[in-house]
Amino acid sequence: MTVDSVPLNTGAKLPLFGLGTWQVKDETELTVALRTALDGGYRLIDTAHLYQNEHIIGEVLHEYISSGKIKREDLFITSKLPFVAHAPEDVANCVESQLKALKLDYIDLYLIHCPCPFKHQEGNLLPLLEDGKLVFDEKTSHMDTWKELEKLYHAKKLRALGVSNFSAKQLEELYNQAEVKPSNIQVECHIYWPQEHLRSVCKKLGVTFTAYAPLGSPGRKAARPDGVWPEGDPLLEPVVQQLAAKYHKTAAQILIRHLTQHGISAIPKSISPDRIIENISTFDFKLSDEDMHALDTVPTRIRLFIFDFAVGHPLFPHDDVDETTAPRSGFKLH
Ligand code: NAP
């Protein structure tokens, strides 16, 4: 299966589809998933320092590159700066450690994972906790961090820069000040949280858009067993089920196709070999304009991820609300 792509403002191409790897830390599971994905045509792999799996990904990438099965230039590796390493003195060291783990000379797209910086423990990149709470780093601005990333971009270690979980306002402010313009933003995006406002800002700026949780992240609750995640399952949405029957595709394939047909890069995570192949098998059909509209206008509006750990942070993405849609249910940001 050949995956479509969109141009980045660097001239490189962003595949419109890739493999998410959040919550996959088991070496055997991730190795099997990556081999299945790469053999099945995936070229974009999405990871982060926070996922604690870059060393496993590095082993598999090395296996494929060193054996000549895949050329480095045909891969597209995305990784992210943890929220505890925004301070200018930490950025380069953190990126170096990630390159080493990934066994790569460069990362194709590198994102600031979260707009809210936090302090880390002396001597390692574990979050500093006081009274069981994360400690805000109130000193470091987005531009302080970005300037360090720009140096690594000029050194060709990071081939494109971007952000994740930033509000439209934060993205635009950064864009206006940056010498190396952001190439991509990665945020929650699916039929229940379509991010229309942010998408229109990205279109205006020429910033590409990546959807995390493209299937509604049905496994997200494992990360928060305290039951704070809002309910909602786009895979079970009646219109998605109807379109799956109409196109002889699965619900997951309809959700992925809906995003990629909008020019949004989708990065569903799976450790199941069958689903990994199912998910990439979405570039061989097209949804009609009418069916795209039906998916665009599903009345439910729910943000499925919450960032309660960052509430009260001075850089909390307060306007990160899709103003064109109904208010979310389940929680308050402010
Ligand atoms: P997702 O991709 O929407 O959903 C993944 C879940 O769906 C897993 O539980 C997976 O289970 C299941 N699944 C996969 N394919 C399926 C299919 N065909 N049918 C039914 N279920 C299927 O959610 P996500 O993992 O939260 O988001 C995707 C990626 O985005 C992450 O892995 C990560 O790389 C990135 N992400 C980034 C951020 C950020 O802050 N930047 C936040 C969240 C996620 P199995 O594995 O058992 O198949």
Bound molecules: NADP nicotinamide-adenine-dinucleotide phosphate
> What's the architecture in CATH terms?
Alpha-Beta Barrel
Main sheet: strand order: 3-4-5-6-9-10-11-12
Count the DSSP helices.
Answer: 10
N-to-C terminal Cα separation, in Å?
44 Å
Give the CATH superfamily: NADP-dependent oxidoreductase domain
Kindly report the average pLDDT value: 94
Main β-sheet description: 8 strands, parallel
Which residues sit in consecutive blocks of at least 5 with pLDDT less than 50?
Answer: 322-334
The SS-based structural class is alpha/beta
Order of SSEs: EEEHEHEHEEEHEHEHEHHEHH
Task: Count every beta strand, where a strand is a DSSP E run of 2 or more residues.
Answer: 12
GO molecular function: oxidoreductase activity
Domain NADP-dependent oxidoreductase: 18-297
Binding site for substrate: 113
Protein name: NADP-dependent oxidoreductase domain-containing protein
List the helices and strands and how they pair.
Blueprint: E1 5-7, E2 13-15, E3 18-20, H1 27-39, E4 44-46, H2 54-66, E5 76-81, H3 88-102, E6 109-112, E7 129-130, E8 133-134, H4 142-154, E9 161-164, H5 168-177, E10 184-188, H6 196-205, E11 208-212, H7 238-247, H8 251-261, E12 265-266, H9 273-280, H10 289-296
Helix pairs in contact: 1-2, 2-3, 7-8
Bound molecules: NADP nicotinamide-adenine-dinucleotide phosphate.
Residues 20-22, 46, 113, 164-165, 186, 212-220, 235, 250, 252, 267-272, 275, 278-279 line the site of NADP nicotinamide-adenine-dinucleotide phosphate.
